[in-house]
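User: Quick sanity check before I run a bigger batch. Here is a single chain. Can you write out its predicted 3D structure?
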Amino acid sequence: MPLARTPVFHARVGTMPLKFFLKLYARLAGLTALVVLFCVLLFTGINTVRSQFWHERFPEPLMRWLAAAPAPIQQYHWLTSTVDLRVGPPSRFNLSPVALERLGYGQVVGIESDVGYRVLVTGLAGEVLQLRLNEPYRDVSETIGLIFRWHLDSAPADDRLNVASQMARSLDVEVHPLDDAAMLPDSDVLAQVADRGLAFYTNKSDGCGRVIVQLSDGELYRIDMPAAFNAWAWPVVLLLVLVLGGVLAVALFLALREVDSNLRTVESVAVRIARGEMGARVQTGEGTLVTRLASSFNGMAEHIQRLVQVQREMIHAVSHELRTPVARIRFGVQMIEDCQDQAALQKQLDGIDGDIQELDELIDEILTYARLEQGGPVFSLQENSVTDIVRQVVSEQQMVRPELSIEGNIDENSERWALSDIEPRYLHRAIQNLVGNAGRYAAGKVLVSCHFDEDNCRIDVEDDGPGIPEQDWEKVFTAFARLDDSRTRTSGGYGLGLSIVRRILYWHGGHAFVSRSDTLGGAKFSLVWPRKKPVDSIV
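Assistant: Done. Predicted structure follows.
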């Protein structure tokens, strides 16, 4: 049964994949750009409408006041030089049909030009009044100040407050006589009032415009104007926040829906596996948030499927393997009853003892294989000399099989890189199984060679025996598999030794395979594993 080359105990703990990060970053950048563009367009569109509305509603009280005057040009003749007051028929002002229609409804119409705004309204006799405002807020404020000054200068001193109050209601402003020194503005504004009789300034506390006018007798009045146009008014900011929050909520919902869909896919596969569909797998897409989860889940599912399959094979194979020694023990017990002398009795007892020892060895092999298959022992990889282990195994096997020539071939370059991250006890077991297996079939010689470099370790065990047919190279690593069905007490082996070897190499991050020996002509078993465990893996 083929094994994966990468051990499952090497769990990645590094950063997320670059492809996924770039994909996520591109999505966030695109979403950010889209949201910013949308907010800019929304902000511009809303403020275009708001600006047009404000530039018509702010001067409307002034325009209504002028339109109500019988002869505004004669009465306020100075406005022709300050705000270019004009009166005439509609055809004089080159107006669009929409503007003419609005004027017919009595609306104040504001038309933006290259140098400011034109504001128009229909007068009492159907004529059109027009003002040109280069700076609409300042020009309207100063014009209202001039009108206030003209009317208050014309009113009796004791009736000025009443006149000012009536005009304030009509022009939608607030008027305060400056009879308290605490209400006076700073000296620069007062100097401007002294020069022009009028001064416009902005109040620092609320940002609204103020107009100070000085009457002919020196009395001062302050006119408080409505707030100027504010592009960042709180309703606009609130709308942008709501839009931004809504877009982010939709984006988050879509992202979570995608994640939830992927997780539901994993969940459905988990349910299918729980119902016995061991072949169910999650389809892993490229660059998704759960790609690594799906990959790990599939690895886990494959491992579980393998364990279940191995368990079934072991139950079947163990039941078969135990029958032979148990049958021999039963037969030996029956033969004891028929023994006539001590020698025959001892022979049967020795046979039963040998069968019991064989059972004990078989159980030990089965338990070792089961531990390695079902997640392995707690591997504690540590730096150790592989060449020392090879020499130890060669020495031990030479003593067990004195009739063979068992040699170790370790060159100086391999000795230089002999230190490797290994589990010494299990690696010793793997090399011992290979050398023992080679000694069982060798005609007279077994050669153990080491080939180490900076990155990898390789150990080759060769013999001069009959070798293994190429079609059986993978079969020999299957648990309880034998190339023949012979099984005697002298032949040895349970079909688990090479399976244990491969599993030990698996947990070292390597692989075990078989080929033909070019040197001795028999079988050649090779162990290959990385010399150092990855720095981003955990055990």
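Residues 1-14, 485-492 have pLDDT under 50 and may be disordered.

User: Great, the batch can go ahead then.
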